[in-house]
Each structure stands twice: as structure tokens, then as C-alpha cells.
């Protein structure tokens, strides 16, 4: 089969002929029609991720058709259109993943290929209203957004939500999910174009986080502070989120793109009775509930651009430069 193979840190990802994987006991082989990029793929390429091994076929998100079954797998799965849950071996504690938790695409070969094999219980029926490209955009970003917004922050209808740094796949899915859940959503970005696109989707408004004292300005514009704040940046700007938070707010963060948070004003946390919530991916139950939620509300992930598999390196560079507004997709089989 053809696959995009990464041979080492800071190496160009290359399209190559490799052996087609065959399903072992309890596994299915999925012929991938589409895959989607995540920042994780860029970080692996740059060597900024734990447990690196090379060569590796990266890629965590994929959708396709089950083409072969391993021993013990229900025959009903054959020829089914599916999307893949990339979070494996969560463990028996729903509150947090266990030591054996792993994400597809490292340490095991991932979805930037014509075929991939995964345990059968990690595939879910593809929502019928989604194309393969749209379905491929959903798994990692969708479960991350769903767990952050509902399992961790317990979002309620009528609450005011702030999504800090709109434009990435998780942030846009969080926006869409919050809107159909009945929340009022506001956004920040360093790009006015991305703010405008978020407003077109349904956000009430937004502001550039480059604006001086943006938290106070946006809170005034919104008519008050925010009940739920979703962030993936961290870094020095995290303190602004404490200013934007309403009393009793929940701030949930699923990444730290800008690094650790220096000099947190703890007095603001305790005086406002804030909850700071970390979130990573989601349980198998979170994933199933996310897929049902998407089907129930007929949500369609926002796609920025679609590339042929051979142009995977070009897609990675677009993500690395933060040019995308929505998911970047690799079309594998038309």
C-alpha cells in the first residue's frame, strides 16, 4: 500500500510503498478514504512529543470501509463505513486515562495510509450525513471538544462561553457543539478573518487577543464575564482568562501551545470561585456520546482544505504556519 512515512525528527514526510497491514485477532482492517491532520502530527515531526519511534506512519484521524476481519470479529462489520476512535486503552477510571493510554499514529502506525488495522471496538459507524472527508475531521478533535465542553465543564444551555484561539479543529467543533447546546459563544483569535468566520458559524462576536486589555473589552461587549472558557494555548496570556471569567466559571484547557502558565494570580481563582479543569481526549463512552451528539444535531465539521495523500508534507506546513481555519484533510481513496 501507499503511506506517508516519517523517518526521523525534522524529516520531510514521504509517500512510500509499504506492506499492507493485516488484522490480528479482534482487529479490523480499514481501507481509508480520508484522514485528517492534528497538531500532534507536526509535533511528532519536530520531535516535540514523548515516545518517539521511527520510521512511523503518523495520523490519528481516519474514516473508511472495513475490508478485512481478524479472528473473532463479528462478520456484520465487513464492508461497513466507519470512523476510528484514535484514543486506545483509556483504562478503567473514567476521570483520567491510565498509563497504557495511547493515541493512534504513535507508537502504532496511523491513518496517513491506504489501510490501517485497529481493534474492532475502536471503530464506530460513520454518521450517514457526513462524507468520508467530513467524518475523518471528527474523531480526535470531536472527542476532545466534547469531553472538554460537556464531561469536564458540564456546559448548560443559556451559559456564556468563550473559546480562546478560534480556528483550529477542536476550537471550531467546540463552537459548533456549544451553539447547538443552547449556549452563547464568543471567541478570540489573532486573526480578524478567523473571528469573522466564527461569527458566520454562529458566534455572537469576538476580539483579537493582541488587543490591550482584551478580556475587559470583550466582557463589556458580551454583557458580562464568561461561565465556561475553553483554551488550548496556556502561556503568559492565561491570566487574561481569569479576568474574563465570571464568578464560579469553569476554565477547561486541553493543550499548552504557548507553554506553561507563569505567575497565576491565585487570588482571582479563589475569590471568583473558579474551577481550572484539565482535559485530554476522552473515554470510549465520551467518543460514542460525541458521535451520537453529532448525528442528533447533524453537525458538520469545518474543513479548511483538502489535499491528496501525496501532498501530506504541504498540509503539515500549512498547519505548522497556523494558516488553517478548520480541519486539514488528506483524500486517500475517491
TrEMBL record:
Which superkingdom does the taxonomy of this entry point to?
Answer: Bacteria
* Domain (Enoyl reductase (ER)): residue spans on this chain: 8-330
UniProt xrefs under SMART domains: PKS_ER
| InterPro entries the record matches | ADH-like_C, ADH-like_N, ER, GroES-like_sf, NAD(P)-bd_dom_sf, Zinc_ADH-like
Per its UniProt record, what Gene3D superfamilies does this chain match?
A: Medium-chain alcohol dehydrogenases, catalytic domain, NAD(P)-binding Rossmann-like Domain
- The name on file for this protein is Zinc-binding dehydrogenase
* Native source species: Hymenobacter volaticus
Amino acid at each position: 500500500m501507499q503511506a506517508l512515512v516519517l523517518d526521523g525528527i525534522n524529516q520531510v514526510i514521504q509517500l512510500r510503498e509499504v506492506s499492507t497491514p493485516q488484522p490480528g485477532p479482534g482487529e479490523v482492517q480499514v481501507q481509508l478514504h480520508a484522514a485528517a491532520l492534528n497538531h500532534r502530527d507536526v509535533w511528532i515531526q519536530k520531535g516535540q512529543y514523548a515516545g518517539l519511534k521511527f520510521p512511523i506512519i503518523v495520523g490519528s484521524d481516519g474514516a473508511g470501509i472495513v475490508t478485512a476481519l481478524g479472528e473473532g470479529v463479528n462478520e456484520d462489520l465487513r464492508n461497513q463505513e466507519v470512523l476510528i476512535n484514535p484514543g486506545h486503552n483509556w483504562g478503567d477510571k473514567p476521570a483520567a486515562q491510565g498509563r497504557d493510554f495511547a493515541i493512534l499514529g504513535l507508537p502504532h502506525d496511523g491513518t496517513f495510509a491506504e489501510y490501517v488495522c485497529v481493534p474492532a471496538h475502536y471503530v464506530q459507524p460513520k454518521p450517514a450525513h457526513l462524507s468520508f472527508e467530513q467524518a475523518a475531521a471528527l474523531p480526535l478533535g470531536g472527542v476532545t471538544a466534547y469531553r472538554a465542553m460537556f464531561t469536564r465543564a458540564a456546559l448548560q444551555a443559556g451559559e456564556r462561553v468563550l473559546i480562546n484561539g478560534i480556528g483550529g479543529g477542536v476550537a471550531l467543533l467546540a463552537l459548533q457543539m456549544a451553539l447547538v447546546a443552547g449556549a452563547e459563544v464568543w471567541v478570540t483569535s489573532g486573526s480578524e478573518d478567523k473571528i469573522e468566520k466564527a461569527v458566520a458559524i454562529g458566534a455572537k462576536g469576538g476580539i483579537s487577543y493582541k488587543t490591550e486589555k482584551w478580556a475587559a473589552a470583550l466582557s463589556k461587549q458580551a454583557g458580562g464575564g464568561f461561565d465556561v472558557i475553553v483554551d488550548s494555548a496556556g502561556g503568559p496570556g492565561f491570566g487574561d482568562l481569569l479576568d474574563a471569567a465570571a464568578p464560579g466559571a469553569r476554565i477547561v484547557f486541553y493543550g499548552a501551545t504557548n507553554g506553561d502558565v507563569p505567575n497565576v494570580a491565585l487570588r482571582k481563582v479563589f475569590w471568583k470561585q473558579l474551577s481550572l479543569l484539565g482535559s485530554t481526549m476522552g473515554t470510549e463512552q465520551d467518543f460514542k456520546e460525541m458521535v451520537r451528539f453529532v448525528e442528533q444535531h447533524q453537525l458538520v465539521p469545518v474543513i479548511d482544505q483538502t489535499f491528496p495523500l501525496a501532498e501530506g508534507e504541504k498540509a503539515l506546513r500549512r498547519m505548522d504556519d497556523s494558516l488553517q481555519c478548520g480541519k486539514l484533510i488528506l483524500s486517500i481513496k475517491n
